[in-house]
Amino acid sequence: MRLTKHLQxxxxxxxxxxxxxxxxxxxxxxxxxxxxxxxAPIPPLPxxxxxxxxxxxxxxxxxxxxAAGITPQTYNRAVAGIAPVATIQQSIDNQPExxxxxxxxxxxxxSARRIADAKFMLTRYADLLPAIETRSGVAKEILVAIWGMExxxxxxxxxxxxxxxxxxxxxxxxxxxxxxxELLAALKLLQDNNYPVSQMTASWAGxxxxxxxxxxxxxxYATDGDGDGKIDIWTSPADALASSASxxxxxxxxxxxxxxxxxxxPALFDAAEADLDAEKPLSAWAAMGIQTASGAALPAxxxxxxxxxxxxxxxxxxxxxxxxxxxMKYNNAASYALAVGLLADRxxxxxxxxxxxxxxxRTLSRAEREQFQNSLKALGYDPGEADGxxxxxxxxxxxxxxxxxxxxxxxxxxxxxxxTLAGDAGSAASR
Length: 431
Ligand code: CA
Known about the structure:
mainly alpha
């Protein structure tokens, strides 16, 4: 799915050590028999230029793999017949949580069908889910939401050969170092667990199983949820869900606390205060006039929260807590974590958002998003690399520009703002 997910700088050696120390939790009750989702058929890999160079990489990488403790037998099993995946760059460019407007992303992520399916899963796993919740402290609705977001509850675990997609990214492109580490971990996964290679399907990014772990994250977090002595997140929902809970707990999940909730900002509010990275005690937000979405006073308490305006000052506002940050460790995109939180709320019977989205704003193309960054740079701001991904640095630069123009500094890029910005950048260049 995404290259951003589960990025772990941990050296391979460290993850091997960590894997060796993993403790076995008490087994959860095994749910009523469920037909395991049929593994998605692996589509034929399209032909790609540079095949000889890819095969040379596969031969060379064997030396690295063997040095890391992989046997030639494991290596040959993994790489037998693999070819490069031609569509990788396209997939990197089109990650929906970065390339679509947040409301459109949420429309499909938190659709009526997905909410209904989530409620069905809560019933179907009425023994397993509370058991994992009790053991881990992570709300079962959050686990089901992650399961739904990642693979539609195990229905689509990715159509790529895990080794082919990681080897392609290890062989070429911008994430070679990352992919090489993941490829080594994937080989270790095969060697330790002896899964059928045909079962080892993954997303284009190399995330696998019902809750989509990258191989290094598997070694760091995965756990045996059904107590059968093996961890198989492809076929065991208990293993997949317990592993997600383990990741969230390790990344700071706070039992019984909310991920966040919709809030209401006062009419005259400096939108620049809304920043995912700027946490304040709830009392400070209350003093600035922030209320709950329905206009009630914020609950008392000194929990630290950040204020987030995913679609700028004209869209809904959210107060976000530590649990939101833990979900972002699953996938480092705020829109993803927001979708998980909102889906969890909706399956628990929560209402839809109070505020509407600015749906009249049109989608910016990748070229326009890059133009945003280049124009900001031309005006002396630092939007980070001009990669078309409007992340934290770009938002901060845009806020500073909006402030200089005396307009609501919400850091939200719109088509009209792009025109103004390009005009200013043009005049600055001609001076
Ligand atoms: Ca198991």
